[in-house]
Amino acid sequence: MTDCVEIALTSDTAAQHWSCCVWDVRTGTQLMTYRNGGPAGPNTLHPVGNQCVVAGNLTKPLLTFWPINRQEPSHVKYMLPGPPGAVAVSPDGNHCLVAHAHSFTLYSLPTGASLASVAHHYGKVTVLRFTDDGSHFVSAGQDCRVVVWSLARTVQQKDAGRMLYELADFTLPVSDVLVGKGGLKALLAAVSLDRSAKLYELGTGRLLLSVLFPVALSAVALNALESELFVGDRKGLVYACNLQSVPRSREVHLQQDVLERCVFRGHRKAVTCLSVSLDNETLLSGSEDESVIVWHVRTRQQLRVIPHRAPVTNAFFLVTPRAMFEQTRDLPVPYPPFQKVVCTRQDRERAVFLLPAQKRSLRERSEEGPAPVAVGGISSRSSSSKGTEIEVLEQEVQRLKAINRRLYQQSIRAITNEAEL
């Protein structure tokens, strides 16, 4: 069991010893490996809740699921229409988006049903992102467009309103997209090979800021406070942009002297992925030079280099799942194989999603607390003391209910007296 708050999940194109790997970023130690799934393609590696990990094969039309605490994958084959260009899983774990060529398909993970197939882009779709509330998602690719979709309208297969809007501000293929926190009120960041990084309001599509760099861009990341933007370019450099600086115009051309003060130097080839830790102190970058570098953000110094066997396709921080290192716990992958044909309207209306819900009394929840630790043969928490704590809590609940009742009655009297006057 590890005591890390955050770990790193990475993959490369070789997959010689593992398809993806979990690392302790402080020491560079391998904590867990997921094997026999083939090389994972760019933007196809995701955790699904705290239960499993999914990756899309780089060359085969196949998705692979691993129980989060097992090295071997599920025996179920998840076949696709083509090799996945991008994969996204909704935060609630109910929906999975898979891109193949210029279209993408929406699957229901609990049932395996193919809910919708959308062919809107003219070029290969390379990026798919869900909002943090799972109500919308974003697609982008080589046709230089970024499109924002409604998940509910896509499931209903309604053409009107299914697409909220599309952004056509780029002149070359979009290489990476990031959706911030806050549902439709979040920020949308996108970078392109045309050397520009742009920030939008996700709900309206209004352009907030456009920053032009001297080299084609390949990756983007925001810190948790959304106060600093990080972009990686095709030459191996990573730049940091402070979004809280003095007021400026909507379009900014960064000069060379400004770039020199905010550059991270270490990679020799194109940066493929970026991720920022929760405390905003650490930056993770993967590159085609077969390495993942852990950076200290404020000093721009390398804390650790994690070597790989081939170009890195995915690298991001992940809050340590509780079940990852519980080897005795059985976590089977509950998802059936994907259907090849899009389901009909009647099938979609009959679809049922089972969400776990537990309604227990205060006494039952208290009794399921951590087991007492025995010291010298004597339990640290006796049954009598536990019963006393429960009684005290129940008395406190009754006292608060009585106070709330008196406040309500007093408010009613005050309102009625004002009405009579």
Describe the model.
Residues 363-386 are annotated as: Disordered. Pfam families: WD40. This protein is mainly β and 421 residues long. It has one domain: 7 Propeller (Methylamine Dehydrogenase, Chain H), CATH 2.130.10.10. The chain is 14% helix and 38% strand. The chain contains 5 helices and 31 strands. The strands form 8 sheets. It has a 5-stranded mixed beta sheet, with no helix packed on it. A 4-stranded antiparallel beta sheet has the order 3-2-1-29, with no helix packed on it. A 4-stranded antiparallel beta sheet has the order 4-5-6-7, with no helix packed on it. β16 and β17 form a beta hairpin. Mean pLDDT is 87; it is low at 365-381.
